[in-house]
C-alpha cells in the first residue's frame, strides 16, 4: 500500500521478546525509540517506533499480562536497514494487542501447528542420534556437517580464567560490547542500558580415547543447577572481590555426563577444536558399587510363647513358687499385708486354655 509516495504495510506477528524498554537520547529527553521483533513462525521482522508512539507501545506492552503477545500493526512505514527490511512508525501508524481478529486466530493456529511439527522433528532426530567416542568424533566426515552426535564423557577441567557468563542483548540475544562506556548491540544497532547475562562454561572433557574442548549451553546449566546467571551473581555468598568463580559451577568437574554435540563445518575442517553442546544429560548414576553380597540381613528371630503376667495384688497371700518349702512358716508373716514379691522371680507355667474354632455357614 502506498500513500503520498510512502510505502505503508499492515502486519501481524508474535512479539519475540516482551522484555523491552524505550531508549532515550541522553542529550534530548524528548527523543526516544523502542526496537522489537515480530515473527510469524517462519521469519522475523525488525520494527522501530520513535518518540510518543514508542512510549505508548512500551506502556501498553507492560500492561499486557498475556504470555503470548500477538500485535497487529496498521500503516507502518516500510524501510530498509543495513540491507534488511524493517518497519518504522508513521503518523497513521496504529497497533493492537491480542484483539479478536481472524488474522490473529489464523496466526495462533499456524504457530501451534508449526510448534507441533518442530517437536515431532526434534523427537525423530533424538531417536537416531548416534553415540561416538571422542576419538571417533574427531574423525567424522562431511556427512555429519550440522548434525548431532552423542558422547559419554567426564568433565576433567573447567576453564576458570575466562568469564563464566556473557552480557547479551535483551532483544536478539547476541553478545554486546562496551563502546564509549555503554553496552551496545551491533545486530540491533542500539545501546543496552542493562544487558541480560548468559552462562558460558568452557570445559575440557575426556573419555578413555581422548580429550575434547566443549562449551556447555546456558539453558542446560540453568536446568541442572536451578539458577540463572543473574541469580548466581547476586547471591549473598558470592563476592566478586573474593570468589572469582562460583563453587556450584566448579562442581561440574569430575562428573560424568552424556553430551549432545552439534558438529559444525569448522569442526570438520579442523579450523576449530571447540565443540558446542546442545544438551547435557546426567550426571549418570553409578550403580556398580551396590553389591548384593554386602546387603546386611537381619537374622530370623525366634518366636517365643506368650507370657502370662499376674498382678501382684493377687499374689500377696500366696508365697512365691521359688520360695515354697515344707517348713512351717510363722503366722505373722503369712498374715502380713505388706509382703513384697522379689523381682526376677520366675512365675510358674500356666496352662493356656485352647479355644474351639466355630465355623458358621451362611445360606443365601
TrEMBL record:
Which Pfam families does the entry link to? Rep_fac-A_C
Q: Which residues form the Replication factor A C-terminal domain?
A: 150-273
Q: Which InterPro entries match?
A: NA-bd_OB-fold, Rep_factor-A_C
Chain intervals with Low complexity compositional bias = 316-325
Region of interest called Disordered, as start-end residue ranges on this chain: 308-339
Which top-rank group of organisms is this from?
A: Eukaryota
What this protein is called in its record is Replication factor A C-terminal domain-containing protein
Which source organism? Daucus carota subsp. sativus (Carrot)
